[in-house]
Write a structure and sequence with these properties.
The structure holds two protein chains of two kinds.
Chain A: E1 4-7, E2 10-13, E3 19-25, E4 31-38, E5 42-51, E6 54-57, E7 64-66, E8 76-78, E9 87-94, E10 106-107, E11 111-115
Parallel strand pairs in A: 2-11
Antiparallel strand pairs in A: 1-3, 3-8, 4-5, 4-9, 5-6, 7-8, 9-10, 9-11
Chain B: E1 10-14, E2 19-24, E3 32-38, E4 45-51, E5 56-58, E6 62-67, E7 72-77, E8 86-93, E9 103-105, E10 109-114
Parallel strand pairs in B: 1-10
Antiparallel strand pairs in B: 2-7, 3-4, 3-8, 5-6, 6-7, 8-9, 8-10
Chain lengths: 116, 115
């Protein structure tokens, strides 16, 4: 299994540009989520999905959209990038919500995004 | 412990010594806790978890202690090795009754192992 994969690894955008961060998992996990990681802030939940066709907002959803058309993929869209969205973005998946019990969350390698 | 501002707290230990990383969690309703390890340039990696009905759980070279009275979690690493150098995060899960059942992460502690 490849686990959780993310593309691209690095991206530089100008303010106002749009882009999609890709995330895919091949473990048949129902639950997928997106986090952003900023220095001194830990990981903060952006959006999550408990299954195909179902998404919900996390702690910091503003400026981001998601969709879940398949179990495997969970793309994160920035419609109009802002410098405040400069961060490292991690996608994660697990069998159950929040990795409860023995179902841990598996994280992708991250996408480092800079918005100028 | 938890970080303040932009700088992570750092724990520096000698190779072979035991390490203790502390975490204060925020919500008394949290019922599940996880420790993650994050190496530079990589995503977080699961280390060990514990439910609120336990106060201690042991893994391979790692032990997690939970003190619900003071809302404190600690990670003990025995015989610390250079490969243990990383940032360690605690995470709490408030459960299905709130916070959408997802994890809330602490800000992390950087462990530096001196050879």
């Amino acid at each position: 299994n490849a686990g959780v994969t993310q593309t691209p690894k690095f991206q530089v955008l100008k303010t106002g540009q749009s882009m999609t961060l890709q995330c895919a998992q091949d473990m048949n996990h129902e639950y997928m989520s997106w986090y952003r990681q900023d220095p001194g802030m830990g990981l903060r939940l952006i959006h999550y999905s408990v299954g195909a066709g179902i998404t919900d907002q996390g702690e910091v959803p503003n400026g981001y959209n998601v969709s879940r058309s398949t179990t495997e993929d969970f793309p994160l869209r920035l419609l109009s990038a802002a410098p405040s969205q400069t961060s490292v973005y991690f996608c994660a998946s697990s069998y159950s919500i929040g990795g409860r019990g023995t179902d841990t969350q598996y994280f992708g390698p991250g996408t480092r995004l800079t918005v100028l | 412990g938890e970080s303040v501002g932009l700088h992570l707290p750092t724990l520096s230990v000698q190779e072979g010594d035991n390490s203790i990383i502390n975490c204060a969690y925020s919500n008394s309703a949290s019922d599940y806790f996880i420790w993650y390890k994050q190496e530079s340039g990589k995503g977080p990696q699961f280390i060990i978890d514990i439910r609120s009905n336990m106060d201690k759980r042991q893994g391979q070279r790692v032990t997690v202690l939970l003190n619900k009275t003071v809302k404190h979690l600690s990670l003990q690493i025995a015989a610390t090795q250079p490969g243990d150098s990383a940032v360690y995060f605690c995470a709490e899960n408030i459960g299905p009754g709130g916070s959408q059942g997802n994890l809330i992460f602490g800000k992390g502690t950087k462990l530096s192992v001196k050879p």
